[in-house]
């Protein structure tokens, strides 16, 4: 919020606090930004990069792109933002900054603007910094394969129909998205109308935020996880559109003038005002409640502590542990770093490494296979222990019925079985 407020103030956006509230009262955004992940840091880097784009600070863009690669897997977004800003400037200088032309002349002007020196410098600065981040990296060249899997296969293609990926990769339903981001979406719908009405007053920054908002709307409808970018870009688009309207305009005098135009206009403004007074606070209360509810749930910090402590005390370093779900790994690894776990990252990595073994892992842990479990696990995974979550009742029964699994520890989180 503080960074956004400072950004708006730097760009001379009036009533910056109101737009920051739209971020604060977006439950989905607040939930994602509060996770113990690099999401918040990524947004800080991204918007710092956007500021450098606006200011044409090329060497700073090089340095930031380098740092971004080392900081977060979504570093490619900076290049996307650079390309969108190049497109926004090109559209502005082609259609809005000069006199109307015939179609062929427009095309020539568009190409001339798109490949101008400053546009080329912008893209090269980000590409150069990113390439340096790839190469001057302790994991080079293996990191290239990792980025391909993470950014393209998981982030864009996504194997959610084949692999049991996290819920964040599944589509957002339109009605759910509206409920989770009501204020930001309402601001945007109003801003879209204003954008069209005052199209000649728009600047490259406004066009850029519109393009970015459209992009992240599409991505968010494809995968829920992009909501952490969707909400800020909607809000920033609204803020910059309002700035275009309010620049050189006394808003109070403008409203009085419009009210005096006709009785119909006066009635419409009154209705809008009453609606806003009633609905905006209601939406904010609803969003505050949803945000509070989302933080009441979640996973305990103590989850798997007892199980992990047992393993720390009873296993040799490097013991291979089978576990129920790939997303149990963070807590298990936090409390016990000396053992090895079957899977810890997005399961797409496991699927790409060996699809047959991934499918076997999924079938065993989902209790679809109940026979020859000992042999299958020993031959394919070389595991010595199996952690079963407390809610996997059928899986626990399958292990007990097999006869080669001894329950050596149990608590409210789950049980540990040792393979004979």
General description of the model:
The chain is mostly helical and 420 residues long. It folds into two domains: 2-249, no CATH class; 305-419. The chain has 21 helices and five strands. Helix 1 (2-10) packs antiparallel against helix 2 (16-24), helix 6 (76-96) packs antiparallel against helix 7 and helix 6 packs across helix 12 (204-222). The chain is elongated, with a radius of gyration of 27 Å.
Taking the sheet with the most strands, its summary is: 5 strands, mixed
Uncertain residue ranges: none
Helix percentage range: 55-70%
Strand order of the largest sheet: 2-1-3-5-4
**Total discrete domains:** 2
Strand content: 5-15%
Helix/strand order:
HHHHHHHHHHHHHHHHEHEHHHEHEE
Task: Considering the chains and any ligands shown, give keywords for the structure.
5 strands; 6% strand; mainly alpha; five-stranded mixed β-sheet; 21 helices; 420 residues
Topology:
Layout: H1 2-10, H2 16-24, H3 27-33, H4 39-55, H5 58-71, H6 76-96, H7 103-114, H8 117-135, H9 142-157, H10 174-180, H11 182-197, H12 204-222, H13 227-246, H14 251-259, H15 263-296, H16 305-314, E1 320-323, H17 329-335, E2 340-341, H18 347-353, H19 355-365, H20 373-381, E3 385-389, H21 393-402, E4 405-411, E5 414-419
Parallel strand pairs: 1-2, 1-3
Antiparallel strand pairs: 3-5, 4-5
Helix pairs in contact: 1-2, 2-13, 3-13, 3-15, 4-5, 4-6, 5-8, 6-7, 6-8, 6-12, 11-13, 12-13, 16-17, 18-19
In short:
By secondary structure, the protein is mostly helical. The chain contains 21 helices and five strands.
